[in-house]
Amino acid sequence: MVIIFRRAFTLFEAMIVVMIIAIILAAAIPNDLKSAKASQKTVRITNLERTKGINYLRARF
Predict the structure, then answer these.
(1) Cβ contacts of residue 17 below 8 Å, gap of 6+?
(2) How many CB atoms lie within 10 A of CB 32?
């Protein structure tokens, strides 16, 4: 019978993985915030355009 020992991650390797994930998140979060602000701006503009259209219809009838 052969016993195979599996080598586990060391603390140093686990810390490297955590640091890589932190760097990726640090780069991704500002871009996500930018896109969220841009989409909110688009929604606000669309809502303003819709209310202008509604006010125009109310004025006509």
Answers:
(1) 9
(2) 10
Tokens of 21: 């994930």
Q: Which among 41, 19, 51, 26 has a CA at the least distance from the CA of 59?
A: 51
- pTM, two decimals, is 0.50
Distance between CA atoms of residues 1 and 22, nearest Å: 43
Q: How does pLDDT run across 32-53, given as a tens digit for each residue?
A: 888 888 898 888 888 888 887 6
CB proximity list for 45: less than 8 A, separation 6 or greater: none
In our burial notation (b when 16+ CB lie closer than 10 A, e otherwise), range 38-54 reads: eeeeeeeeeeeeeeeee
**Residue 34: count of CB within 10 angstroms of its CB:** 10
